[in-house]
Amino acid sequence: MKTFILLLLFSPLAFLLQDDEITIFLVADSTVADKPFKDGNPEKGWGQVFPLYLKEGVRIDNHAVNGRSTKSFMDEGRWDKVLSLIRPGDYVIIEFGHNDQKIMDPKRYADPDTAYRANLKKYIADTRAKGGKPVLATPIVRREFDEKGNLVDTHGQYPDVVRQVAKEEKVPLLDLEAKTRKLLVSYGEESSKQLFLHINPGEYPSLPDGKEDNTHLSPYGAFRVCDLVVEEMRGEMPELVQYLKD
């Protein structure tokens, strides 16, 4: 009997039973990435707070990195690393766009109708080949208002391409561009500053001169965007609702 128990404990089946968590991989840019805490760094990506919304049984593996695009993330070998970790049943949330549109930077630029579209489809195909479940997310908006107080679109075609590819490939879509646009409009030009890095001089040791950044999220902004991620998941990924905290 003891021999049987030992064999069971050290068998491949036992390993699978002990390691049955679902992993959600995050493949994205700075708006999602984990940021250092040194000197009270106020910048946070929504992926950094995402684990706080989840119950046991699912975990987050955040591979998002500042400044990356669909192109540079692959060219640097980061996508290959993620692929080596994906197991059947895992999820991969893919959110790019902020850096793909930087036309003056050939290392990152990806034309929306050609390279960007093709890269998104490659992420989807590669994930499926590993038995994973791809999920697309449109990029969150930047905080930019015109002289009349209207929110300005800074992403051009990129969000629409994500929506089109999601529909063509029949994958879940987290439409964070639409959700965050609505959020910023509801806050208005002044109050929406709290969602981003509007830091007064001397407020944080890491930013002695202060900062005005309308792309990257404050801790509060990261939580508010994560609220929207979860809201989208409830509609697009209902099989994971059981893992969401109330």
What separation lies between the terminal Cα atoms?
Answer: 44 Å
Q: Topology as H/E string?
A: HHEHEHHEHEHEHEEH
Q: Report the sheet-strand fraction.
A: 5-15%
Q: Helical percent range?
A: 25-40%
- Average of pLDDT: 92
The parts where pLDDT drops under 50 for at least 5 residues are 1-18
Spatial ordering of strands, largest sheet: 2-1-3-4-5
Shape verdict: globular
Distinct helical segment count: 9
Largest sheet: 5 strands, parallel
Q: What's the total number of strands?
A: 7
The SS-based structural class is alpha/beta
Q: What's the alpha carbon Rg, rounded to whole Å?
A: 20 Å
Please tell me about this protein's structure.
This protein is α/β, with parallel strands linked by helices. It has helices at residues 2-9, 12-18, 46-49, 70-75, 78-85, 112-129, 158-169, 176-191, 219-236; strands at residues 22-28, 58-62, 91-95, 133-137, 173-174, 196-199, 211-217. Strand 3 (91-95), helix 6 and strand 4 form a beta-alpha-beta unit. Residues 1-18 have low confidence and may be disordered.
Task: Explain briefly what this protein structure is.
This protein is an alpha/beta fold.
List the helices and strands and how they pair.
Layout: H1 2-9, H2 12-18, E1 22-28, H3 46-49, E2 58-62, H4 70-75, H5 78-85, E3 91-95, H6 112-129, E4 133-137, H7 158-169, E5 173-174, H8 176-191, E6 196-199, E7 211-217, H9 219-236
Parallel strand pairs: 1-2, 1-3, 3-4, 4-5
Antiparallel strand pairs: 6-7
Any descriptors?
246 residues, alpha/beta, five-stranded parallel beta sheet, two-stranded antiparallel ribbon, 9 helices, 7 strands, 39% helix, disordered N terminus
